[in-house]
Amino acid sequence: MIDNAKERNKWKVRITACINSSDLVSRPVSKCMAEVVGGILSSGSLQLSKISRCLKEPTRLHHTMKRLSRMLGTHSEITWAAETLLLNTIAPKVTQNMVLAIDPGDLNRAGSNKSEGLCQVRDGNKGDIVNGYPLISVVARCAKTKTTLPLLTRLLSSRRGGYKSENTDIMQTMERVQRHIECEPLWVIDRGGDRSRLWDFWIKGDWKIVVRAMNQRYWTWRGGFGTAQQIAKQLPLKHRGKLKPNSRESVRFGMTTVTLKEHPESRLSMIVVRHGKQQPLVLVSTQRVRGRRQGERLIQAYISRWAVEEGYRFSKQGFDLEKVQARKLSTLQNLVALATLAWGLLAQHQQDGKRLIIKAQRQKENKPLVFPFYTLLMGWQRLFIGAKSLFYDWWRKPKPKDSPMGDLFDNSDELSPC
To answer: What pTM does this model have?
Structure first.
């Protein structure tokens, strides 16, 4: 029990040190951020009722929920502060060998018709158009060390003030992340990024990008024009490579040079990968590919983008993102940003979090952790389940005990007689 108390104090110090490391927000707001981050990790949920219950304050649960709801709803700067803290902490750890995966997602809010700023989104699981909010997430992934670092997750709305388009949101998100990164890593985006507006932005800004091409545009190739699948049928696949660094199976792929009609002077590299019985995988990159190894690296870089999909799954399953009950847009944005900050805290200490892994009592002890955050989160919850309180004893001094009535007459003999 003493060891558990020491370990809990270490993690609480890490939370407070991370949030109080800069003067981005006032002290009451920073306390609220630390409480919500600790409550998210301890409860595994973004519901204010479960977060308040895990704080274990000696007050009524309704009062704690009301206080957190008021702070999250009125202080919209929490989102900006949480993003800045996460980028200042995680961005220096991004190296040139890592891949930055960016992907638009969605938050299904079909059962909440009175939420503020509700808009129409496409549900990625079912493919239906439902009420909800668009999400944008950026995750860094290293294929060799299998390290995943969350950098940013934003909840947006097309009905908010100053909204322009989804393309603008993607470009602004990439610029905000790149400003905090010293190197120039490779960016990877799925087929949803094959848009003319984004290609203009990437080519003019000399971005290092890999995009999965859709079959909805014509590329200039060998003096003619063709769609991605038309080029894939005619291109000879002369090379063999692996989809993953440690994979035993190899795939056939070919490389060629294409251009866009809008940018005939900018030469792009197209890689066609034949895998299984599915349609060939067609990738287009602003990087020049001059050999088999460079082509194989770009293929493996695109496969590494699964980390952003797993990040969405972790947010929705590990933190119950789709079960959040808040209706105010600023509250939802603050909760998503703080949940990403909580995920970043686990990612920052995923190498030295052996205590949490032991607490989780994993069944497969001999196999390495590919995506360790489910195990780390379970270990955190089991470690803090025996805590008397989370932060209440740290920030609020206990009230002095009232003296009994008998103490009034203990010194009666010292009183002077009448």
So the answer is: 0.89
